Amino acid sequence: MSDLSVYLEAIRDLAVQVREAALDHAAFEQRLQPCELTYCRATCCHDGVRLSASEAAVLIATATEHAASLRALGWEGEMKDALVPDVRPGGACRTATRAARAEELAVDFPAHFPATRCVFLDAEHRCLWQKLAVSLERHPWHYKPLTCWLHPLVLVPGSQGARPLLTLFSPETDPQRAPGYAGFASCTPCGRQD
């Protein structure tokens, strides 16, 4: 498992949750588009990536250990500026964002999303953590946070001893949907119904 991901504790926790999870069969009958970076330009990364405290610690340690490699791959920032507190419940922090230029956004980029992108995306919309893993001959997602692994799948925790639920959100069930905000996962190209 250590070859697959650097987040061993999180992978173990995820494995237990998935093993215990109920599958939302109706949600998985939705037809979804495959992920195509040239089309979506990493829309799912527009607002940074939510990280647990342990994921943030691993990214900081990895960036310190592989600073020269990250710079060679195009990283120009500083880790002290790359992670910011997460204002939403459940996350310790998230990756920082920067303003996106029009050509960096998908043609059908959701109007309710801020025109930003994760600071760890390169000019071709690829994740620098994934590029680092490949350059070190590891699994491509070795350093990618688990949120990235799952998107657009969502593992909803069970309440009061109930089983977790593995699902896909639709425009009607997207929990981030609010007045003036159409939602998140169901609005990304790979999370939209096809």
Overall 3D geometry?
globular
The span between the termini is 34 Å
Strand ordering within the main sheet? 1-8-7
Rg, Å, rounded: 17 Å
* Binned strand content: 5-15%
Helical coverage, percent range = 25-40%
Which short descriptors sum up this protein?
194 residues, alpha+beta, three-stranded mixed beta sheet, three-stranded antiparallel beta sheet, 7 helices, 8 strands, globular
Please tell me about this protein's structure.
The protein is α+β, with helices and mostly antiparallel strands and 194 residues long. It contains seven helices and eight strands; from the N terminus they run αβαβαααββββααββ. Strands 1-8-7 form a three-stranded mixed sheet, with helices on one face. The protein is globular and about 45 Å long.
Topology:
Layout: H1 8-20, E1 22-23, H2 37-40, E2 50-51, H3 53-65, H4 67-72, H5 79-82, E3 83-85, E4 93-95, E5 97-99, E6 116-118, H6 128-135, H7 146-150, E7 153-156, E8 165-168
Parallel strand pairs: 1-8
Antiparallel strand pairs: 2-4, 3-4, 5-6, 7-8
Quick recap:
The protein has helices at residues 8-20, 37-40, 53-65, 67-72, 79-82, 128-135, 146-150; strands at residues 22-23, 50-51, 83-85, 93-95, 97-99, 116-118, 153-156, 165-168. With 194 residues, it is α+β, with helices and mostly antiparallel strands.
